[in-house]
Design brief:
With 247 residues, the chain is an alpha/beta fold. The protein has a single domain, classed as NAD(P)-binding Rossmann-like Domain (Rossmann fold), CATH 3.40.50. Bound molecules: NADP nicotinamide-adenine-dinucleotide phosphate. NADP nicotinamide-adenine-dinucleotide phosphate (NAP) binds next to helix 1 and strand 5.
């Protein structure tokens, strides 16, 4: 469409996968609304870097997405500036390792609200704008553990399983309205989320992956771009696994 600069709202843009996604869309000249939380200064620096390298406009927004009011506030700000949004990518998430009997209610709520509550609320906030135009794409960043389940990550797995079910259901609900919804179920991707692992643990884990290595954030970013673009126009309600055949 000539003259139209497509827009992306990306949560978790200050993280490893999010940064790579932001850069992929910047390369294609998108208008970027990028959310971060604790690493907001890094995110501001990323916005400046993308603006100077690719000539795009990128706005950094700080929000704790486990807080419903913060989600609503962020979307009010974005939609006031640009009411017409093309793509929402929900990438923010946190891990929690440990045994279920040791997990507090506060830990449980933090994982579920950050990983799944935020996806629900971000989708709900963007939908009026997409429904109005009868177009748009939503992509949720899930995990292979959402379908397989991971020992010592039971609630994390449950939060990603919720994203998978939500994606399938919302894909059906919104297809008649011209809006597509998909998810990428990531395997082990080389980002700060896995910094908890020692070098030896990382090497052993890579040995267990048939492709012989962790995934790269750029590989997820290119899959994300495909799943929100015209080349995937008949794909909706799907969970696309990118795990190097680990499962
Ligand atoms: N890396 C993997 O192996 C892997 C595997 C499967 C799925 N995933 C999924 O991929 C997504 C991105 O992960 P990553 O590997 O890029 O991890 P990461 O580098 O740790 O980034 C996590 C992102 O989530 C944001 N975030 C965390 N808590 C938040 C909160 N309460 N409110 C708002 N934002 C919050 C972080 O923002 P701040 O840092 O600014 O607070 C950061 O941008 C996550 O959903 C994760 O579950 C990752």
């Amino acid at each position: 469409m000539s003259g139209h600069i497509p827009t992306l709202i990306l949560t978790g843009a200050s993280g490893g996968i999010g940064r790579a996604i932001a850069e992929e869309y910047a390369k294609h000249d998108w208008r970027l609304f990028l959310q971060g939380f604790r690493h907001i200064d890094d995110l501001r620096a990323l916005c400046e870097e993308l603006s100077s390298r690719y000539g795009v406009t990128a706005t950094a927004l700080r929000a704790d997405l486990s807080d419903p009011d913060a989600v609503n506030g962020m979307f009010s700000t974005i939609l006031r500036e640009e009411p017409s949004q093309d793509v929402l990518i929900n990438c923010a998430g946190i891990a929690w390792f440990g045994l279920v009997q040791n997990m507090t209610d506060a830990d449980y709520s933090r994982v579920m609200e950050t990983n799944f509550g935020s996806v629900f609320r971000c989708c709900r906030a963007i939908l009026p704008s997409m429904l109005h135009r009868h177009s748009g794409c939503i992509l949720n960043i899930s995990s292979m553990w959402g379908s397989a389940g991971s020992s010592t990550e039971a609630v994390y797995s449950a939060s990603k399983g919720a994203i998978d079910a939500f994606t399938r259901a919302l894909g059906k609900e919104l297809a008649p309205s011209g809006i597509r919804v998909n998810a990428i179920a990531c395997g082990v991707i080389d980002t700060p989320m896995n910094d908890i692992l020692s070098d030896n643990d990382k090497a052993a884990l890579a040995d267990d992956i048939p492709l012989g290595r962790f995934g790269r954030p750029e590989e997820i970013a290119r899959t994300a771009y495909f799943l929100t673009g015209p080349d995937s126009s008949y794909i909706t309600g799907q969970i696309i696994r990118a795990d190097g055949a680990y499962l």
